[in-house]
Amino acid sequence: MPTSQSPFVLPSADRARSLAEALLSIDAVSLRPHDPFTWSSGLVAPIYCDNRRTLAHPSVRHAIADGFAETVADHDWVPLTVGGTATAGIPHAAWLADRLDAPMAYVRASAKGHGQGQRIEGARLGAGDAVVVVEDLISTGRSALDAVAAVRETGATVPAVLAIFSYGLDAAVTAFREAGVPCHVLTTFPMLLDVARRQHSLSDDAQALLNDWQADPEAWSDEHGD
């Protein structure tokens, strides 16, 4: 379970390091502290994560499924349904559900405007069901926790969110704490920086810029944007 200070549950160091190495090797996570990215929100950031790249690499996606399955095996979350966030969490939720031989659902960003107007597709959820929500990336946590809220509206419980990677932003820590749900992540921002530094692809100056961004993304964006 998470500590009283944080709702985030961290993986073993070996698993976190191995996955961080894999994400960097396939450019699923890119670090450009001196030539920052512009996110869809408009914020300027020295890091960009696109875990959709994992879909093209069987060994990486197998490692992700292994990590999620081991997390579930370590807890008594039954009866269990796997719920993916649309769209990035869907493939990883499907692979996990297959590993567990469990029902699967996915949660739309909003209810569709035709047919039965469903927001949650797949397994029908209700009281007595436990649903782990699978997300690819945690930034502020808003999309994952929106899915958690939708699942809870059915009467089902959400014992945890599972995610591949988290930026480790304070906003996400606060949001998950307020929602009362832990988030189990397979690798972390500090581990990613440590791997990059050990691979000699990250200078001390670059690491300082990345740490400054994590401490205050909006201020960093204001300072380093055009």
Describe this structure in words.
The N and C termini lie far apart (42 Å). Helix content is 41%, strand content 22%. It has eight helices and eleven strands. The longest helix has 16 residues, at 58-73. The protein has helices spanning 13-25, 58-73, 90-100, 142-153, 170-179, 189-198, 204-215, 217-224, and strands spanning 8-9, 29-31, 37-38, 44-45, 47-49, 80-85, 104-107, 120-122, 130-138, 157-166, 183-188. It has a seven-stranded mixed sheet, with helices on both faces. Helix 1 (13-25) packs antiparallel against helix 2 and helix 2 packs across helix 3. By secondary structure, the chain is α/β, with parallel strands linked by helices.
Give me some keywords for this one:
single chain, about 230 residues, alpha/beta, seven-stranded mixed sheet, two-stranded antiparallel sheet
Draw up the topology in text.
Layout: E1 8-9, H1 13-25, E2 29-31, E3 37-38, E4 44-45, E5 47-49, H2 58-73, E6 80-85, H3 90-100, E7 104-107, E8 120-122, E9 130-138, H4 142-153, E10 157-166, H5 170-179, E11 183-188, H6 189-198, H7 204-215, H8 217-224
Helix pairs in contact: 1-2, 1-6, 2-3, 7-8
Query: How far is the first residue's CA from the last residue's CA?
Result: 42 Å
Write out the strand line-up for the largest beta sheet, numbering strands in chain order. 1-11-10-9-6-7-8
**Sheet with the most strands?**
7 strands, mixed
**Which stretches are low in confidence, meaning pLDDT under 50 for 5 or more residues running?**
none
Rg on CA atoms, Å? 18 Å
Class from helix and strand fractions:
alpha/beta
The secondary-structure element order is EHEEEEHEHEEEHEHEHHH
Query: Which percent range fits the helix content?
Result: 40-55%
Oligomeric status: single chain
